[in-house]
Amino acid sequence: MIIGIPKEVKNGENRISLIPAGVKSFVQAGHKVLIEKGAGLGSGITDDEYILAGAEIVISNKDIYHRAEMILKVKEPIPDEYPLFQENQILFTYLHLAPVPELTQALLKRKIIGIAYETIQMGDGTLPLLTPMSEIAGRMSIQVGAYMLQKENGGSGILLGGVPGVEPGKIAIIGGGVVGSNAAKMAIGTGAIVTILDINLNRLRHFDDIFVGRVQILMSDTHTIERSILEADLVIGGVLIPGARAPKLITKDMVSKMKKGSVIVDVAVDQGGCVETTTPTTHENPTYLVDGVVHYCVANMPAAVPRTSTFALTNATLPFALKIANLGYQGAMKSDKALKKGLNVFKGKIVCKAVAEAMGLECSPFEF
């Protein structure tokens, strides 16, 4: 199979979907890898490193899309890339289709075989290709939030850890999944007063075991969310329903009552956000104010640390990508139920139920 690796073009995106070790694995398995010139530089990987691993460097992304049977990316394509799709081409990347109907329609029109990293799901419910980026985004959310709390960034001027004689700041983390648990680990280290909310009692018991009284652990409901965010200086949104739009757990009315200069970091923005006032932002212009509350809603947070993110992501994606290349998409999905759950669109049809429901369109289950 011919694997194409175009340079990422989303604002502030410096990750790449394959490292030289991955190229070598594809080549040793008898496949060909095309990489757009300079695609790895943002992650500190040169074209020469890819050439040594056996890749062919291609000048134009148009040539990548024209020649490749499978496109391996990091982020969902943007409108400039839609015309480059080839009919029946495999696209393996983060898609996050639920909040982006125009991308969904473009993939359907081009009859793309779209496999989304974020909906590949193991039998135990874990999301192996979403997990590493959620870990990074969760950990970043605290350092980003602390920076945005500085007065020059629109924040209230609070130091999360406080100092002797001055009380520390307060952090509320909505959602106890991978993002929330990693945010909590970092939040504890700041010395702040940390609250984590979730609807899963087993998760709450788990947090009680591992954090041993260092975090306030609460059942998530509308009343408790509102009370917690009104007290908080920093709010982290870390809610996820695989493939579907994130539920709006924090309303406009709640935001209007929050302390002026407090900060919201909505990590759920990729799936539409869990805050009603969320609008996707970029690394170039990451924040905006609503009722005096700073909103940080960058949809590709891990791109700010591309070296770490690229290696963490490709550690997870490579085995699945190799399986698709070695067995073909049908053979790979027959042999791997987790991978089959990653299929979102297939040759003009939506096959992921959560995406279809978000679009208000019919779901056509994939049949071999």
Query: Considering DSSP H and I runs of 4 or more, what fraction of the residues is helical?
Result: 25-40%
Q: At CATH's second level, what is the architecture of the largest domain? A: 3-Layer(aba) Sandwich
User: What's the Cα radius of gyration?
Assistant: 21 Å
- The shape is globular
Distance between the amino and carboxyl termini: 20 Å
Number of helices: 12
* β-sheet strand percentage: 15-25%
* CATH topology descriptor of the largest domain: Rossmann fold
What is the succession of H and E elements? Answer: EHEHEHEEHEHEHEHEHEHEEEHHEEH
Arithmetic mean of pLDDT: 95
CATH superfamily of the largest domain: NAD(P)-binding Rossmann-like Domain
Sheet with the most strands: spatial strand order: 3-2-1-4-5-6-14-15
CATH class annotation of the largest domain = Alpha Beta
Helical/strand content category: alpha/beta
Q: How many strands in all? A: 15
Protein model, in words:
The protein is an alpha/beta fold and 368 residues long. The radius of gyration is 21 Å and the shape is globular. Helix 1 runs parallel beside helix 2 and helix 5 runs parallel beside helix 6 (178-190). The two termini are 20 Å apart. The chain folds into two domains: 2-120 and 305-359, Rossmann fold (3-Layer(aba) Sandwich), CATH 3.40.50.720; 131-304, Rossmann fold (3-Layer(aba) Sandwich). The relative contact order is 0.15. The protein has helices at 20-28, 47-53, 61-67, 101-109, 131-148, 178-190, 201-211, 222-231, 252-257, 306-335, 337-340, 353-359, and strands at residues 2-5, 32-36, 56-58, 70-72, 90-93, 113-116, 170-174, 193-198, 216-219, 234-237, 263-266, 287-290, 293-296, 343-346, 349-350. Strands 3-2-1-4-5-6-14-15 form an eight-stranded mixed sheet, sandwiched between helices. A seven-stranded mixed sheet has the order 9-8-7-10-11-13-12, with helices on both faces. It is 36% helix and 16% strand.
